[in-house]
């Protein structure tokens, strides 16, 4: 009898322990803030380094790409910014596949390490006046490393976020991907504005711009440490345990099985990334060169955009959970297509800091509205087995084609047409592409609402 009681007590204890473990696991799935923060801090660093180059494009152009006139120098500088996007699809293929093979955590750790190396190369690169042609080559290699790193970041980070989140709140948690991009914008624009305010133009050109890149290097080890302490996602562990050596690679599976979804997903991102890079990243240069607004004030405008994006992206992610990602995104893309021209008209009619701040605040809301639902939408259409690869490829091919070269494209459009409204035409064209892709993808997947 005593043995039976002991056995019964042991059974109850085991059941209680299993229930407790299950409850603990469920709690982690419902409140995955540790994992979200781990993905977010690295994501913020990646985009800080990307943005800071764009904000100092004028200075970098003069120091590393000297030419007979400032316009040519600027074109070379923003062209180098765009070059990093050429390699982003390769980063998406390698690091995205790595995320689906070795795990989200392994890919996230690799991407932040590569980004730190690229940032260090730019921060300490000798200028053209010091070592000649080797100087711009160092910048190009550094930008290629940064582009490769960023190419794998989106897919792994988004997959990591949604797989740690409750299925009904994926839009909310995945939107922190964009919220931290807003934080990166606040940091990059804030540091740039502070440096341009405290330093003379000569000091900024000689060494001040390097301080901005060194700030990113200081954050890097923190992000690396935090990512090393996180757990792999339960969904990936389950799929990895069931996988066999004979299965095809994630890249082959995406291209063979999910090709149509991949192409439509590229179209979905097109308008959002063009609007994002033209209105957020290129705007300080546009304000300085076309509107003749002081550098400090132009950076404050970008800071406002980042702040609004940081605060409102989770709002639109939540709306996508409640009302449907395709419905929210359709309205957002239409709003972007209709608003870009009026926003540029306002800036050119009243080229003041007050107008710039107001416009950039509106831009922040619109970026959040279109980019907030996109990470979860893309994660929904690709299965766990190929999610990292599918996310990385669709996002980065689109960003490369429509976003990365947008500063170069619109700079050329303005120079060729002598029309300051030219950037809005580019945004409207890409918004139309996205609107069409969203509608078609929604119908194909049966999620048109």
Task: Characterize the structure shown.
There is one protein chain. This protein has helices at 2-30, 33-55, 57-64, 70-86, 88-101, 104-123, 128-131, 134-164, 170-174, 176-198, 201-228, 234-242, 250-257, 259-281, 283-289, 295-323, 325-349, 353-371, 374-381, 387-404, 406-417, 422-445. Helix 2 (33-55) packs parallel to helix 6 (104-123), helix 10 runs antiparallel to helix 11 and helix 10 (176-198) packs antiparallel against helix 16. The chain contains 22 helices and no strands. It has one domain (34-229, 249-445): MFS general substrate transporter like domains (Growth Hormone, Chain: A). The protein is mainly alpha-helical. One of its GO terms (cellular component) is plasma membrane. The chain crosses the membrane at residues 74-96, 108-131, 137-162, 174-195, 207-226, 262-279, 299-319, 326-347, 353-379, 391-415, 421-442. This is Major facilitator superfamily protein. Keywords: Cell membrane, Membrane, Symport, Transmembrane, Transmembrane helix, Transport.
């Amino acid at each position: 009898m005593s043995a039976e009681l002991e056995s019964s007590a042991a059974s109850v204890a085991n059941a209680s322990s299993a229930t407790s473990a299950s409850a603990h696991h469920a709690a982690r799935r419902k409140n995955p803030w540790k994992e979200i923060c781990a993905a977010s801090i690295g994501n913020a660093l990646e985009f800080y380094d990307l943005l800071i180059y764009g904000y100092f494009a004028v200075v970098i152009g003069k120091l590393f790409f000297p030419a007979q006139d400032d316009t040519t120098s600027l074109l070379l500088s923003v062209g180098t910014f765009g070059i990093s996007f050429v390699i982003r699809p390769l980063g998406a293929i390698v690091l995205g596949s790595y995320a689906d093979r070795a795990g989200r955590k392994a890919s996230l750790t690799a991407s932040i390490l590569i980004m730190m190396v690229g940032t260090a190369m730019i921060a300490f690169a000798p200028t053209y006046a010091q070592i000649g042609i080797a100087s711009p080559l160092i910048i190009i290699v550094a930008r290629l490393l940064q582009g490769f790193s960023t190419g794998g970041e989106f897919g792994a980070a988004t997959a990591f976020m949604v797989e740690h989140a409750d299925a009904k709140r994926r839009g909310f948690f995945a939107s922190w991907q964009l919220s931290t991009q807003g934080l990166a914008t606040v940091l990059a624009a804030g540091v740039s504005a502070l440096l341009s305010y405290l330093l003379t133009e000569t000091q900024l050109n000689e060494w001040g711009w390097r301080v901005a890149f060194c700030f990113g290097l200081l954050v890097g080890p923190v992000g690396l440490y935090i990512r090393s302490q996180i757990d792999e996602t339960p969904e990936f562990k389950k799929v990895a345990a069931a996988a066999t050596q004979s299965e095809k690679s994630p890249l082959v599976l995406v291209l063979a099985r999910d090709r149509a979804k991949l192409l439509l997903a590229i179209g979905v991102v097109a308008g959002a990334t063009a609007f994002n890079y033209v209105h957020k990243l290129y705007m300080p240069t546009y304000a300085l060169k076309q509107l003749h607004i002081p550098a400090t004030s132009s950076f404050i405008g970008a800071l406002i955009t980042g702040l609004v994006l940081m605060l409102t992206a989770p709002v639109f992610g939540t709306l996508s959970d409640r009302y449907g990602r395709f419905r929210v995104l359709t309205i957002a893309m239409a709003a972007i297509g209709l608003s870009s021209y009026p926003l540029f008209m306002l800036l050119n009619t009243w080229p003041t800091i007050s107008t710039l701040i107001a416009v950039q605040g509106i831009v922040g809301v619109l970026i959040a509205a279109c980019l907030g639902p996109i990470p979860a939408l893309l994660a929904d259409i690709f299965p766990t087995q190929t999610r990292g690869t599918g996310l990385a490829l669709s996002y980065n091919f689109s960003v490369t084609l429509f976003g990365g070269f947008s500063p170069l494209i619109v700079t050329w459009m303005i120079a060729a047409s002598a029309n300051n409204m030219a950037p809005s035409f580019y945004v409207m064209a890409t918004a139309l592409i996205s609107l069409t892709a969203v509608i078609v993808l929604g119908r194909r997947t049966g999620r048109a609402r």
